[in-house]
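Possible regression after last week's pipeline update?

I re-ran a chain I had predicted before the update to compare outputs. Posting the input and the new output here so someone can diff against the archived version. Not blocking, just want to make sure nothing changed silently.
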Amino acid sequence: MDTRFSSAIHTLILISEAETPMTSEEIAKSVGTNASYIRKVTSLLKRKGIIESRRGVSGFQLLISPRKLLLYDIYLAVSETDQVHVFDLHQNPNDQCIVGKHIRPVLLEVFRSVEEKAEQELKNTTLADCIDRMRNQAEGSDDK
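New output (post-update):
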């Protein structure tokens, strides 16, 4: 996974908190990327019914309450997979080496355990939780 997940969360917070609908150009400026990348991310979010845009009207609307929108659902929307995937294994370990011969099943077990914990955390965290944390962070910073 690249930065789509964090960019999607950033985008959804902006959409949720904006007083007026935000365009992909405005979102891109905040995320620190280009508008075409944001259009790719928002396209994935639209496909999963998380946001919508209307023809002739610029900007996006959130279709799911931030209190009901799980980070897990956002992850699945932008990663286009059916489970959390954090780590990849190297492809060609040497079977003539004792480590090379046995490393894949060992790492698969460890990695899947970590991914299951990450998945559970994403299922227990909503977009609203991120918004609340962001507000707390902003209140504690000097750039009020």
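Follow-up from reviewer: compared with the archived run. Residues 118 and 137 are 23 Å apart (CA to CA). Marking as no regression found.
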